[in-house]
User: What shape does this take?
Amino acid sequence: RDQGSSISSLVSTLVPVFVVAAIVFLIFLVLRKRYQRVYAPRTYLASLRQWELSPKQNKGAFGWRRQYMALKDEFVMGHASLDNYLWLRFFRMLAAMCVVGCLITWPILFPVNATGNASDVSGLDILSFSNITPGPRYYAQVFVAWIFLAWVMFVITRESKFFVRLRQHYYSSPYESACISTRSILFVNVPEAMRNEDAIRKEFSGVRKVWLVNVPEDLAEKVKDRDTAAQKLEAGEVKLIRNHVKRMAKEKKKGKRQEPNDVERNEPIVVKKKDRPSHRLPKLQFLPIGKKVDTVDWARAELSRLLPEIRNEQNKLRDDRSSVQGACFVEFETVRAAHIAVQKRGIKNKAKITPKEIGPAPENVIWPNIIKPFWKVQLLNAACTAFVYFLCIFWTIPVAVIGAITNIDYLTSEVPFLSFIDKIPKVILGLVTGLLPVLLLSILMTLVPILCNTLAKLIEPTHRAIQLKVQTWYFPFQVIQVFLITTFSSGAASVTAQIIQTPPSAPTLLAQNLPKASNFYISYFILFGLLSAALEMLNVMPLLGFLVLGKLMDTTPRKLVRRYITLAGLGWGSLYPKFTNLGVIALSYSCIAPLVLGFAAMGFFLLYLAFRYHALFTLGTNVSTRGESYARALRQLITGIYLCEICLIGLFAIGVAESKEAIGALVLMVVFLFGTVGWQLWLWGVVRKMEGDFPSHEGGGEAFRGSIQGHADGKGGNHTPSPSREPTPQRSFADRFKAFLFPETSAAHAARMISSNLEVSSRREYTEKEHAEAYIHPAIFRECPVVWIARDEGGLSKREILESREEVGEGLEMTDEGAWITPQGKLEWTENPREAPIWEGDVKY
Assistant: This one.
């Protein structure tokens, strides 16, 4: 234990994590073949268009490996979404960055650090900055930092340029440019003088259609109540029928009913009171108490009251132009015209009309927020942001305690009440100081993005904006709490006893021991690289959903279908900050503890492999950020460069007290810091210029021309993606090197791969009704949802449908087609979502 905790902690963390990860991966291999819906839904789901399907996997435990290896990452972009592709590219970039970092730092810094002459340093700590004393060795740290951080800057610059051009190519493709949302812009703060279509058309050129926003709050509340009543009726009817069927089966089994069923005898079906479901009507929604009512009777009464009221109000509002509010959606003729309109508003905005978001999907709009006054949005935004920063302070205490646990063995000799730690076996102590803090920190951090998401819903106009806002808030929280607070608490705890004995030596002791906090992050990368990757392959939550939650919660045909057809998506706002922070940690420790880079490279690569499997075979996209979350992550990654430079400057400054030779290293590092600031300002200017220079071609230019054919049937023809075929000719080494240096060329190549993968377009023309209602508030045109129940052999479902239609009247559509209840009371359906009564087609705005 006198040799430090690095080696014991590393081994004690690595071995159990590796064993658990191997077991989890074996479980995945066993379950994959049995549960195709969990592990390969993109290969067969009927709700997907033909071109969206991935190649079917071969049989056997490793039958997926052939397709997994044959498909390129760009396949995800052409068959799923741009966000999913960039998510894979993010991990691939981080892994490559760390691998090159190892090649740069290890050959130089390992010998320099290992041959240092610092005292009281042992174990893996001899490979870190802790083992060198102020002097000429500092210059090795400086020049290695220059080379490595310059490489990181080049990668970020290249990826930023690549992203801008790739997104422009992607949304200029025939498929994407045909989407209404791709050519549309949400404008807010529209003055009263411009709240008419003529004024909007006069302000912008190339306008195809204008939707003036009217948010009928009273009608929206009634529509919400109507949909709730319809859901209650649906759930209540299914439960009533199942209770009746189960009771009849029990009576038959006991011999009480040997005669033919009531339908065969033409006798009325008798439903006992205990078969009828009921619920309470709480006076306050959050209280589970209130008047108890019959669910079916209550729902019918509510629908009979609400349907005529809603129908009358909808008829009035469809042609009402007097209630227009301060927002509008504008569709342009081309994608380029939409981008020019955004640039125009940014340069000159006399009318004060503000482009809030380009490419808003109608289903993602948060209607109450887009009409909020500008001052109210700004006030809420400031308050919510201040509260998030307050959380950074509030969370410091538990996070600091967790960080101190990683090096708590350093305190045992000086703090009497911790002496019992000396009696703990080394293996157990290694687990406590290595694995336990990582698990505790992971649990603690899960609460924060939930809170950030709740706050963002108060101010942002769309779900995409919510994800980006959560990413903006959650990243600094991750850096401060998961990284900085843990680092300083861990490093300070290592030397607390020595500082108590000799206070004047505090600066030197901190300079020697702060790098020891890297022990925690080595464990952190081991956990994320091995265990998180294995758990990601196992797909735990969808697996539990189908094995456990589905059986408990899917009590109606609608819920069965939704669970079956809904592909899981990733929450970009909460995921990107977590892994961007890992990148920041790797960069920050790259020069003072370069061993971290090796474990980081392994962790990022394993996570890339795991996420790649799901991007190819399981993942959908819940909310599209149009790749903006990736661009934001690149900008946030620059934080790691600054932290690395500031940390080295601080350590060099502390070393100046012992050796004047450290002054040169300090000055050189300060110069590089100013150079980094200049580079970042230059990069911002370059990216803004590229974004303003939108390609003049439509339909993706030569990269796409002639590669995609239009079909009107919505199924995409008979195209089957072929992973074995090379989509484009093989490029020479010179071409690859050119593409690496000039990302515009690489983006064009990726665009050609999209067109090769997506050979047949499923884009069909919008109907006149679909186009007209694209950006109209749903409450104004949405009909009552179909009430879908399950039929039974006794005919009770038919009787319930007739009674509901009679009591509710016009406006209720109710059916029992496509789902049934077995004599044992089990709910089943046809498992063809396109034949389900609730299938709404595959309109993509």
